[in-house]
Amino acid sequence: MGRVDAELSVAVAQPHIAAGAVTANVDAHVALIDQSHARLVVFPKLSLTGYQLAASPIDVAGAVMEPLTSICAATGSTALVGAPVESNGRHYIATVLVDSTGPSVVYRKTYIGAGEQARFWPGPGPQAINLNGWRIGLGICRDTGIDEHVSGTAQLGVDLYACGVVHHYWELAEQQRRARNIAATCRAPVAMASFAGPTGAGYVTTAGHSAIWSAESSLIARAGLEPSQIARAILKRKPAQEVPDQV
Length: 247
What we know:
Layout: E1 7-14, H1 22-36, E2 40-42, H2 66-75, E3 78-87, E4 90-99, E5 102-108, E6 128-131, E7 134-140, H3 147-154, E8 160-165, H4 172-186, E9 190-194, E10 211-213, E11 219-222, E12 229-236
Parallel strand pairs: 1-2, 2-3, 7-8, 8-9
Antiparallel strand pairs: 1-12, 3-4, 4-5, 6-7, 9-10, 10-11
Helix pairs in contact: 1-2
């Protein structure tokens, strides 16, 4: 049995993103990880590129990711960042976990939007990772509004649901509704990182307001509308149970 922590410090971050400037975007992530003082830092969908559907896939094993590995090693943080990735000739919208050992793809978006289908493939479905005894379910944007996906993630027995999204400002109420629904279905807190500031594909004014919700669907912490903001909370785990080693 692996290490089990009774508490987990979690931050949701909304970096300032420049379209096509991956190196600068990585630096923005590094700054927010450093400021977060959190064990887990969650970033929005496609946070390394912005919502640029034609962006080249990120080489997660490449040098561009090294500053993220270094800051996670220095701070003891684990980051969940959003990136387009390629595997076996197929492109995916992915969540990439970065810690002191380096980056790895841990989730691929399951429910691809209509505008994404020409470029991206769907992932295999609900996934969870383990971090210090916390079982963390994952989702990306449209996944969070699909009941089948949310209930499938709940069936994995998660202690936290972490997701990255991008919404228009006028979709903020729907963003909040989804977070509350996920919390109620999974009976677990929700860490939802939402893009802030302009990005591609017509997202001129995005919703921001990245937030952390309790298992009872109550708002715990929330960022504002602007980029470069963080919301942070210390979550208490469900009653202890045996969990597999961290993966």
